[in-house]
Amino acid sequence: MVAERLASDNPYRKDMLGSFLAHGLTREEAEGETLTQVIAGSDTTATAIRTTLLYIVTSPRCYDSLVSEIRDAAAKGTISAPIKDSEAKTLPYLQAVIREGLRVLPPVAGLMSKVVPKGGDELCGFQVPEGTDVGVSMLGLQHSQEIYGEDAAMFRPERWLEAQGDRLKTMTTTWELTFKYGKWQCLGKSVALIELNKIFVEVRMVLLDCIRLSFSQPPFHHSTTCTHIYTSSTSFSLVRPLFSLTSSEEKKLALTNR
Ligand code: HEM
Q: 192 CB less than 6 Å from ligand 1?
């Protein structure tokens, strides 16, 4: 992609790659940056959507609570179509579902180590020499029973509605680390949260109904590979063969998707 652009008539045309090149990135740097944009901005959110949707449609209690919260809000006219980010933030169960999905399977799960700077540093009371790689197991942290309770490995959005005070604060600050912190924090965090705030409401209810009816089994494993970030070529194709639409449902879906 970068080689093609450099060989083109207009390498600096108005897009991200054009901007990188216009700001003086070398070919190698632009290649690295392009990969970051594609993987950081798409596979991460795609993993969060896939995981959360899978848990929603395979957890009847969660599914029912979420659908009734959305339907109530739609009936009261407190959400638009499509839902606005600000409106989604007023739906407590939806927010709990989004948090829980990112917690149970944090999309960026590699150590993503950082190097201790010159002079060393002190971490949690330990002296760490300069040059040491320090990383965190995000999956381990987000499944901590000490922070989230004995059922930390389970997808249970209700934990976010039950917790209060210091416990909720600790859970929230720990959860925020799925996007890292400080100078290493994800630059697309707000974009990712806007996407997540909309998707689970906008996925057509009729489709969710069909998926739910077709699941008679507990959650299955979905095929995913984790190097540092989860990637998958299967996505929803695992879900699709498990259900079929009746002709009236197909018509309804076609109408609602217009
Ligand atoms: C649920 C979705 C997402 C999660 C969980 C996530 C998580 C992360 C994490 C943990 C990092 C820090 C990596 C490190 O330790 O160095 C990061 C960095 C980054 N993310 Fe995200 N991300 C998500 C979505 C996005 C989106 C949608 C975009 C772009 C629109 C994006 C753009 C970036 C970029 C550019 C960086 C590198 C920041 C830097 O250090 O310069 N991310 N992300």
A: yes
- 189 C-alpha to center of ligand 1: Å? 7
The reported pTM is 0.81
Helices 205-214 and 60-76, axial angle in degrees (round to 10): 160
Please tell me the class of the 2-256 domain: mainly alpha
Please enumerate in sequence order all residues whose Cβ is within 8 A of that of 105, keeping only pairs 6 or more positions apart, or say none.
Answer: 47, 48, 51, 139, 230
Ligand 1 within 6 A of CB of 184: yes
Q: Any idea how long the chain is? A: 258
Contact 147, 172 (CB under 8 A): no
Ligand 1 geometric centre to CA of 222 (Å): 23
Is the distance from the beta carbon of residue 108 to the nearest atom of ligand 1 less than 6 Å? yes
Nearest to 116 by CA among 94, 97, 131: 131
pLDDT digits (tens, 9 = 90+) for 92-136: 999 999 999 999 999 998 888 999 999 999 998 999 999 999 999
Sequence spans of domains, the chain: 2-256
Match 């705030």 to its residue by tokens. 197
